[in-house]
Design a protein that fits this description.
With 379 residues, this protein is of the alpha/beta class. It is built from 14 helices and twelve strands. The chain folds into two domains: 237 residues, Aspartate Aminotransferase, domain 2 (3-Layer(aba) Sandwich), CATH 3.40.640; 130 residues, Aspartate Aminotransferase, domain 1 (Alpha-Beta Complex), CATH 3.90.1150. 49% of the residues are buried.
């Protein structure tokens, strides 16, 4: 069952969905900072760690409407959302399939923690549907994907994965951070659980650390049970900032889509650039699939410098900031080998195609011409 909001347009949902009334008729949701709530004469037991205080509920109602989900949870970080979701369903002896080219933090979590819990896993060599099928085992419980992926913008066919999971009775989970709910709604394509690092596009101003999980009532109920033990909920003030940011999500992402498309085309033609990874380029291996399952190609791209040292290039930039993380209104750039995938071994980096001359560019909402001029002078 999908979220049943009477509002339809995503830009409208971003602004209005989930907002709580103010007793003094203010137009913003009040911040409920209490960590202690009265319990007499009510069935509900409000407590921040129970993921049920008003400001948390606002975020989930808004995101559930945007992702066409029934319910969700908001966490203190994206990795809290990832780890809690996986450990909510996996038991000793279960097997999990992970696509090729995952976010470094997720890959590090899997490599470091799964064996301690007696969990089996397979990290694929490529993301062809047949590769997923050949990795299936009788004890496979979850297929975990990330599309577009971090940092090489690989595209996975979501409908193929969802059909495969239904056939083999396993759970499909996607990290939808790079796309955001504006560009892609995996639940509409049959995916069971959607995860976001809200630190990125959902927050959008480089000042919030948060995560979110959206799914059916059944799956969220199971994740909630584990969440009560693991902790990791988000406090009311951060929820307030996240709600503020979500109101502009649609217009921010639309501008970032436009700018990234322009920059990808520009970089693709430059002789100083070896490769450009952007699903909106017709030369991208996943272009046709991305065109089918996304409404916008996103604000993230990566490229490889042909000759210039990547640190020298970054230091020459005047407008684009060499900085970690992504999805903010300002354009930032980083080298995955020393940032997002720093905790992954060099051997694993190479296996995923992450080269030392690779740079990941998070395109902001600035003027595209100014961004091009900044790259031009640095090249």
């Amino acid at each position: 069952m999908k979220h049943t909001s009477p509002l339809k347009a995503k830009s409208t949902l971003c602004v209005h969905e989930g907002q709580q009334p103010d007793a003094y008729r203010g137009i913003n949701t009040p911040i409920f900072t209490s960590t202690s709530y009265g319990y007499l004469d009510t069935e509900e037991r409000l407590y921040p760690r129970y993921f049920n205080i008003p400001n948390q509920k606002v975020i989930i109602e808004k995101l559930a409407a945007l992702e066409n989900a029934q319910n969700g949870l908001v966490f203190g970080s994206g990795m809290a959302a990832v780890s809690t979701t996986l450990l909510s369903f996996l038991n000793k002896g279960d097997h999990c399939i992970f696509q090729n080219g995952l976010y470094g933090g997720t890959l590090h979590f899997v490599n470091e923690e799964f064996s301690r819990f007696g969990l089996e896993y397979t990290i694929l060599k490529n993301n062809n549907p047949e590769t997923f099928r050949s990795a299936l085992k009788k004890n496979t419980k979850i297929i975990y994907i990330e599309s577009p992926s971090n940092p090489l913008l690989s595209i996975v066919d979501l409908e193929e994965i969802s059909k495969m999971c239904r056939k083999h009775q396993c759970i499909s989970v996607i990290d939808n951070t790079f796309a955001s709910p504006i560009n892609q709604n995996p639940i509409d394509l049959g995916i069971d659980i959607v995860i976001h690092s809200a630190t990125k596009y959902l927050g959008g101003h480089s000042d919030i650390s948060a995560g979110a999980v959206l799914s059916s009532n059944q799956y969220i109920s199971r994740i909630t049970q584990s969440s009560l033990s693991f902790g990791g909920s988000l406090n009311a003030i951060m929820c307030h900032l996240l709600e503020r940011s979500l109101k502009t999500l649609s217009i921010r992402v639309e501008r970032q889509n436009q700018n990234a498309g322009v920059l990808a085309e520009y970089l693709y033609k430059k002789r100083e650039i070896d490769r450009v990874y952007y699903p909106g380029l017709k030369t991208h291996a996943g272009y046709e699939i991305a065109k089918r399952q996304m409404t916008g190609f996103g604000g993230m791209l990566s490229f490889e410098l042909k000759t210039q040292d990547i640190n020298t290039f970054q230091k020459k930039l005047q407008l684009i900031k060499p900085a970690m993380s992504l999805g903010g209104i300002e354009s930032t750039i980083c080298a995955p080998v020393t940032t997002s995938h720093r905790l992954v071994s060099r051997e694993e980096q190479e296996a995923e195609g992450i080269r030392e001359n690779l740079l990941r560019l998070s395109v902001g909402i600035e003027d595209a011409g100014d961004l091009i001029r900044d790259i031009e002078q640095a090249l």
